[in-house]
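quick one, 206 residues, struct below
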Amino acid sequence: MSDQQAKRHGKKNYIIGIGGVTNGGKTTLAKRLKKTLPNCCVVHQDDYYKKPDEIEVGPDGFKQWDVITALDMEAMTNTIKRWISDPVKFGRSQGITYSPGFRKFKNVQPFHILIVDGFLIYNYPGLTDLFDKRYYISITYEECKIRRSFRQYIVADPPGLFDGHVWPMYLKHRKSLEESNLEIDGICYRAPGWHETEGGPLQSSF
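---
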């Protein structure tokens, strides 16, 4: 645990990461947790995409939406640091009503939670040390492609984008994460049926 993490634990403030494959359900889960947990705010990585005219075209012939340079990660990191500096003020800016904790449980001290979701939150060095807990969601190629086909984006997917860019980039970023040996606290893999694994470095075998 880093010094920053230790300080946050002492203050009862926690940052939880939900990373993983695109269209895997990260944002849906984050929004549900925000409604369920007290004093909970959310930062969505998708909110930090650069403007379409700032996205470069890569060697694959597609605009590079699924790479870290397509996102304003400095702005995202600064947003998270604003929460760290004053979670109450940050929460009020998101319409969160301050609660002194789980009232139905005794001896529970007030705390604040920030959930950060995104497909590349574990591939940016400026973020990895900020998380107290890291979770990862994965789904199969077939499931991901079906979900992607039903999603409507401001900039529509051109033909061939999923197989030519989206999925190859996911595999590339996941391999990079595996090689980093970054500790993941929980992995949820949706194949035919769900199974969850305990924490540890991400492994390609799951």
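Residues 161-180 form the longest helix (20 residues).
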